[in-house]
Amino acid sequence: MTMNETTAPGAVDDVIDAFFAERIARADRLAPSYAALWRRAAEASLGGKRLRPRLLLAAHDALGGGDRVSALTAAAAFELLHTALLLHDDVLDGDLVRRGRPNLAGGFAADALDDGLGGAAASAWGEASGLLAGDVLISAVHALVARLETPARRAVHEIVDDSLFVTAAGEHADVGFGLGAIPASAADIVRMMEQKTASYSFAAPLRAAAAIAEAGPDVDGALHRVGTQLGFLYQLRDDVLGVFGAEERTGKSVLGDLREGKRTLLIAFAEEQPAWRRVRHLFGRRSLEADDAARLRDALLACGAAEEIERLIDEHRGQACRDIEDASLPAPLRRELVALAHRIAERDG
Q1: pLDDT tens digits for 118-131?
Q2: 248: which of 52, 159, 256, 332 is 20 to 30 A away, CA to CA?
Q3: Can you name the residues that pair with 102 across neighbouring β-strands?
Q4: Torsions phi, psi of 102, nearest 5?
């Protein structure tokens, strides 16, 4: 298989579906509302690009791995980890929509409102449900990894644990930057981006594939470095799409990052420019409307920040491709990773 596939690997979806069916059946015996939590968690896992499973499976195959069952199970675990972190991210950001539809927190809050609960209580119920759903899915990740029948099981557990540890550092910094609780230089923002996205989305699935394929420490190190670069590139494009993207393609509101006051390199590049200073008071305003968001976007274009980010994306794409070509990896995997770097840099959703 290759990372060029546009649909999710069916066998990975089968593992995920079977896991959710088992958990929903167990939850049904405890409480209807808890079973609803698991059903909505299952729904939250639908509709994604399945980037992490595709990455893990393609790397496993290119490295000559012969344990397809373990690779499929690990791939499903990383998709559940992604879903868990999205659920937590939505709660932290106060978002109620994901992939173009109400997210888990939004669904529980809407149901509570329909049942006559007050607005504040309904919102709290939605947030608590989103938080708990993310918690149980993180536990589910380790439960799935525990099922691996491979000597690499412990190594994959440690890779998951390390990626979560690093990702939490990045998420904590991201929230702190947005609230003004932590000062944020451009270097701080770069470090946050590498921690928040690169570790669990790219480096960890690649390293897990290498562990299952018994590829050795040199390959693990190379994939860690390459994965971090790809993740940084992905987050650069993601930050642009968060402001200038099309909602029908990204599945997220293009007002969210502006309302949140999200500290990105795009904003860091703009901050000292006169065009941005004139509208900076609108940035981070929770009541931000479309017209004022358009003023912020116009300022980011006028001051050159958007152009600077595009230049940075091209620069890092070129560096990532050169480093991939120089890595001690099989030629087919190098080709796949170079192609992935180009798709990440050029994506619109």
Answers
A1: 999 999 999 999 99
A2: 52
A3: 97
A4: -55, 135
Q: How many domains does the chain have?
A: 1
Distance CA 347, CA 343 (A): 6
Assigned domain for 37 exists = yes
**With b meaning 16 or more CB within 10 Å and e meaning fewer, what string describes 175-204?**
bbbbeeeeebeeebbebbbbbbbbbbbbbb
pLDDT digits (tens, 9 = 90+) for 26-41: 999 999 999 999 999 9
What is the rounded distance in angstroms from the CA atom of residue 54 to the CA atom of residue 209? 11
The boundaries of the domain holding residue 137 are 10-346
pLDDT for 151 equals: 95
Q: Are 238 and 192 in contact (CB under 8 A)?
A: no
For tokens 């006051």, the residue is: 261
- Report the CATH number at residue 121: 1.10.600.10
The parts of the chain modelled with pLDDT lower than 50 are: 1, 5-8
Domain assignment present for residue 1? The answer is: no
Q: What is the reported pLDDT for 30? A: 98
pLDDT computed for residue 1 by the predictor: 47
How much is the pTM?
A: 0.92
Tokens read off for 317:
């794409």
Structure tokens that stand for 5 in this block = 């596939």
Residue 264 CB neighbour total at 10 angstroms: 25
Q: Is residue 68 part of a domain?
A: yes
Q: For residue 4, is it within any domain?
A: no
Give CA 206 to chain center in angstroms. 15
Place of tokens 């968001």: 293
Give the span between the Cα atoms of 75 and 320, in whole angstroms. Answer: 24
Torsion sign across C-alpha atoms 210, 211, 213, 218: positive
